[in-house]
Amino acid sequence: MRFKLIVFDWDGTLMDSEAKIVACIQAAFEDVGQRAPSREAARNVIGLGLTEAIADLWPEAGDAERSRIADCYRHRFLGAEETPSTLFPGTRELLDWLLERDYLLAVATGKSRRGLDSALEGTELAGRFHTTRCADETFSKPHPEMLLQIMGELGVQGPDTLMVGDTEYDMQMANNAGTSALAVCYGVHERERLLRHRPLDCLQTLAEMRLWLGGVVAT
User: Are residue 74 and residue 104 in the same domain, yes or no?
Assistant: First the structure.
């Protein structure tokens, strides 16, 4: 098995942004006069598009109420919230290593385009990816459309594609799109939850991916 395309989730996979996302979700609900969801509830929706995440947390809300919370969340995340987000150790080095070996690299994320572009600019990683897709451009995970669009743009088939992520939404999207999935267990969803969706493996650190890919190729 030799993959041609590796698609990464962003939050919880390449960037340690869980604390900031949870803080922004809780603050956004409070900003509109609603009780903030628990930390666990807020963590659980990381990986979904913002619209889908808010609907999951407040199913009774109408469109106008959800729109207000979304606006508050964006305001918090893109400026007002000071909780730092940093790349996981070894992220930059791994991406460079993969590019040196001629892998195509992409991002499929629940972030908005504005949010991802801001993160790519801040980390100076934009040039490492051949293409990216965001939840406000197409269907949210676990719908397969993000992966299908990426593969179509880059001319790669499902068997040659590997989706790497930290949530069950990533694993489900890969299954729905007919690609392989590789889970990372240091992000949002626990190992047991990820393994229910039968990824090829579950890595404890991103740095392990070099050795893992070598073993996959060797077999």
Answer: no
Where a domain ends, among 80, 101, 126?
Answer: 80
First to last CA, the chain: 7
pTM of the model: 0.90
Alpha helix positions (H), 58-144: 63-75, 91-100, 113-123
Q: State how far the alpha carbon of 7 is from the alpha carbons of 17, 145, 147, in Å.
A: 18, 13, 8
Q: How far apart are CA 126 and CA 57, in angstroms?
A: 31
Neighbours of 92 (CB within 10 A): 15
Instruction: Report the catalytic residues.
Output: 9, 11
**Which amino acid is present at 106?**
A
Give yes or no: residues 66 and 153 share one domain: no
Q: Following DSSP, what letter does each residue of 167-192 receive, concatenated?
A: SHHHHHHHHHHT-EEEEETTSSS-HH
Using CA atoms, how far residue 195 sits from 119, 160, 168, 171, 198, in Å, is 29, 21, 9, 9, 5
Query: Smallest Cα–Cα separation from 148: which of 133, 135, 126, 136?
Result: 133
- Residue type (1 letter), 190: E
Any residues with CB less than 8 A from the CB of 107 and at least 6 apart, and which? 7, 8, 9, 10, 14, 116, 129, 132, 133
Residue 74 domain boundaries: 18-80
pLDDT tens for 132-148 read 999 999 999 999 999 99
Total domains, the chain: 2
Looking at 32, 59, 80, the residue that finishes a domain is 80
> What percentage of the chain exceeds 90 in pLDDT?
84
